[in-house]
Amino acid sequence: MKSPEYVSLLGYHLIPSVHYFFPESDGIFRDDNARSHRARIVGNWFQDHESSFEHLIWPPQSLDLSPIENLSDVLERALRDDTNLPPSIEDLGSKLMLLWPKIYVQKSYKLIESMPKIMCAVIRAKASPTKF
Predict the structure, then answer these.
(1) pTM of this prediction?
(2) Are 121 and 132 contacting, i.e. CB atoms less than 8 angstroms apart?
(3) What sign for the dihedral angle of Cα 64, 68, 71, 72?
(4) Can you give the pLDDT at residue 36?
(5) Are residue 25 and residue 46 in the same domain, yes or no?
C-alpha cells in the first residue's frame, strides 16, 4: 500500500473508529514500521489529527514478541518450501488449512513456553536486541 492510500484509509476508518470505541476520551493508535506508514504525508496527517487520538511511535528496530507472528512466519516458510504452489486463492486457502494444524501443534506450545525466557532476556537487555 502506498502512503496516499494509507492516509485515505486512516481518514476513512481510523477517525470514525476512535470516536466509536472511545467516545469519552482519546484512543491510542499504533501502526508498524512499514515504509508507507513512515512517509512524510502520513506524519503530516497524524499531526493534523493529533487532537483526535494518541499515535504511538513504534521504534524502528522494535522487538516482535508476539507468538502469533512467529507462527505466521513458520506457516509462510512452510508454504514457500512446498514445491506444489497453489494455482488459485481457493487452493491457497485449502493448502493453508492443511498446513496450519501441523504447524500449530508442532510450534505453538514451544513458542508460548519460551515467552517467560524471552521476556527475561528483553528485560535484562533493557529492550535492546536479544538473540530472540
Answers:
(1) 0.48
(2) yes
(3) negative
(4) 81
(5) yes
